[in-house]
Write a structure and sequence with these properties.
Elements: H1 6-16, H2 28-39, H3 55-65, H4 68-88, H5 98-108, H6 135-148, H7 155-172, E1 181-183, E2 186-188, E3 190-194, E4 197-204, H8 212-223, E5 230-235, H9 241-246, E6 252-256, H10 257-265, H11 270-284, H12 291-294
Parallel strand pairs: 4-5, 5-6
Antiparallel strand pairs: 1-2, 3-4
Helix pairs in contact: 1-5, 2-7, 6-7
């Protein structure tokens, strides 16, 4: 497995800060919250204080001893945070070829490259059609999904990691994903655009299957939107038998962890998975049909 070199660490320092003891504009509490929520790691564990207790030194310790999958998650999350802050303040990029260089580091570790800049797009220059993700990107997505099984942190942290993974997965297939967001009185785990329709996402990574009441609650959220809005409920542990029987789907299709794994392992285009699920839901009134049945 590839490791970060001295040059890699120097690049990371130039992007986020590290050797000076500080990491961007994080306070201690926000740094702890960021790592717990976005990386699924307790950065204030004593294991990461091998060089000292400052934020920068803890980050350096983390990059040296953490599992590769966690390092990849951290680099993606740090980049996203940096870009949101930079663009919000209309700041010019100060590091030459920053995205491309950090992407190369992440890909060397086996991760998915950073998302393209908006002006680069996802379209093929000759055909104007959405490009299929590279094999390397698809392999990285599969590895990231499998790595979440090994996370022994809080269930909430794994849930956040699941949401971030789903956004990357949908973006990889050009479905214009949006991350989780809050509105007055409700939390939405994300959304994506598929063949002109906006789908809201509900993502659950729990040990228990999802029941009918949870499905109904999500369908109510979808139903409160304009006509044509749809929903995709992704439950890692699937759905209860009683729930599937009691729930009447009108705008919602469903997916479980095995569906995610099958689509990733077999490299099935995600847009085709969504289309197949929707068609069976409409034609046969079956909102939950496994990927292995849809794509035998």
């Amino acid at each position: 497995m590839a490791k970060l070199t001295t040059a890699d660490l120097k690049l990371i320092d130039s992007l986020f800060g590290m050797y000076g003891g500080y990491v961007m504009d994080f306070s201690n509490s926000r740094f702890a919250s960021f790592f717990e929520r976005d990386v699924g790691v307790n950065i204030y564990d004593d294991a990461y204080a091998i060089h000292g207790t400052s934020k920068g030194k803890r980050l350096r310790g983390f990059l040296e001893i953490a599992q590769t999958a966690a390092i990849i998650r951290a680099l993606h999350a740090l980049w996203d945070y940096r870009e949101v802050s930079r663009l919000a303040h209309s700041q010019a990029e100060t590091v030459d070829n920053a995205r491309q260089r950090l992407s190369a580091v992440i890909e060397k570790l086996g991760g998915q490259p950073l998302a393209m800049n908006p002006d680069e797009g996802l379209q093929d220059a000759k055909t104007g059609k959405l490009s299929r993700p590279s094999v390397q990107a698809l392999v990285a997505l599969e590895e990231e999904f499998m790595a979440m099984h090994a996370m022994d942190d809080k269930a909430q942290a794994r849930g956040y990691a699941f949401e971030r993974f789903l956004r990357k997965w949908f973006d990889a297939w050009g479905l214009d994903a949006r991350g989780s967001f809050k509105l007055l009185g409700e939390q939405i785990d994300g959304s994506f655009l598929h063949e002109g329709s906006v789908y809201l996402i509900e993502a659950k990574w729990r040990n228990q299957p999802t029941d009918a009441s949870t499905l109904r609650s999500f369908q109510e959220k979808v139903g409160d939107r304009l006509e044509g809005a749809r929903g995709l409920f992704i439950s890692y542990s699937g759905f209860t038998a009683d729930g599937l029987q009691a729930f009447t789907a009108r705008r919602v299709v469903m997916m479980d962890g095995m569906d995610v794994y099958e689509a990733l392992r077999r490299r099935i285009p995600l847009n085709e998975v969504v289309a197949a699920k929707l068609r069976v839901a409409i034609e046969e009134r079956r909102p939950f049909v496994h990927v292995r049945e849809l794509f035998p």
